[in-house]
Amino acid sequence: MKLFAGMLHKGFTDAGIESETWLPTIFFGHLAKNTNRGLGKWLGYLDKWILFPVILKGRLLKIKFNNAHVAFHICDHSNAPYLAYLPKAKSAITCHDVLAIRGALGFEDAHCEASMFGLILQKWILKNLVRADKLATVSALTYQQLADLNNGFVNHSRNWQIIHNAFNQDFHPVIKPVYEIQMLAMGFVKSQPFLLHLGSSLERKNRKLLVKMLIELGDHWDGIVCFAGDPIDADLESYINELGLQNKVKSIVKPPHQNLLALYSSCDAFIFPSFSEGFGWPIIEAQACGAPVIASNIEPMPEVSGGAALHESPADAGAFARAFLSLQHNGLREKLMAKGFENIKRFSVSKMTEAYISLHNHQKNN
Asked: What is the pLDDT of residues 184-223, one digit of tens each?
């Protein structure tokens, strides 16, 4: 969530509010090459949950001693336990999703499995999260799911709001002469038609549907599928090889921003068939670059697209294929592009910042 934290920091600064970002100090984590798994993960936990709270207490004592007027914002719900150390009336938090929490609690539609320790961790996060007096969720779906996890109850003396994410970088259409050069540099054949997906290889991202679309489209479309983001995992690669589609699938691993703009601007359509999301940034990124979007009909995808995308069941590759072919008729492609440019106006940094300032200025009713 560093991009989100940076965006919020810039928004506050541009609004004339002095702002600084505190990150957990990395000490034990330096002893490991990878803090995402194995021993390294546990060393990272020592930094995050043992060392940083001590440092945080010291900083808070210094602020109290100086009698500074200050508010605190936790940028990621997974850090909700830090709320226990912060002054409640001056602290707020952003909840980007409750997928890991719901997955740990056994909700299959979250498509997020958890270990036994993961269950303990997510319960701890939830316990602190629902106690927040000031809280923002990035979508109506996340708001409702969080309320449901809190026994369907939101205390009206609290200030819980829905504040949509803004763009965390500049997204805009790239003109054809420019993106053609970039596409050739990425190994594309000139003017090669392709469907684009951006994201991780997590099961909930439903990458396999795009491969199934190739089968469904058959001779009706002669293009390829491009996966941008994480590398193609072993399971998907095996599926592609089994179907003999190695030459119809391309992987662009973690493209730099300028290449991503070129991919969005030149794709025949952006496909986002996720089973679960908290927000779905790529939908509005693609719209901002002029790409027609076909996405899952599961919330919050329709909420984020603002009616400027086609939505189908993420379990139905045939429906996605038919939706894609429909872009060729009755000027639908151009209509979606125009609606997309209108929709993205909802997601400006200034609007988001204004909402967060309002969240922090809210006074609890006693």
From this structure: 999 999 889 999 999 999 999 999 999 999 999 999 999 9
| Domain architecture of the chain: domains with CATH | 2-17+69-166+349-361 (3.40.50.2000), 176-347 (3.40.50.2000)
Number of separate helices (H) and strands (E) present in the chain: 15, 10
β-strand pairing of 159-162 with 194-199? unpaired
Query: Side by side, which strands form the sheet with 224-229?
Result: 249-253, 224-229, 194-199, 269-272, 293-296, 310-312
Instruction: Please state, in angstroms and rounded to a whole number, the distance separating the CA atoms of residues 93 and 96.
Output: 10
pLDDT recorded at residue 231: 97
Q: Which residues, 6+ apart, have CB-to-CB distance to 248 below 8 Å?
A: 214, 224, 225
**At how many degrees (to 10) do helices 257-266 and 281-288 cross?**
70
Neighbours of 310 (CB within 10 A): 20
Report the predicted TM-score, pTM, of the whole model to 2 decimal places. Answer: 0.92
Q: Is the pLDDT of residue 366 over 50?
A: no
* CA separation for the pair 277, 38 (Å, rounded): 27
Interval 31-89: pLDDT, tens: 776 766 677 778 888 999 999 999 999 999 888 777 678 999 999 999 999 999 999 99
Average pLDDT of every residue of the chain: 93
Distance of CA 149 to CAs 95, 101, 249, 328, 351, Å?
13, 9, 40, 43, 28
Report the pLDDT value the prediction gives residue 39, as an integer from 0 to 100.
78
Q: What confidence score (pLDDT) does residue 42 get?
A: 81
Nearest to 283 by CA among 268, 265, 301, 267: 301
Closest CA to 76 of 139, 4, 182: 4
Mean pLDDT within 306-332: 97
Helix axes 234-243, 208-217, angle to 10 degrees: 10
- Compute the residue count for the chain: 366
Query: Can you tell me which residue has the tokens 């429906």?
Result: 319
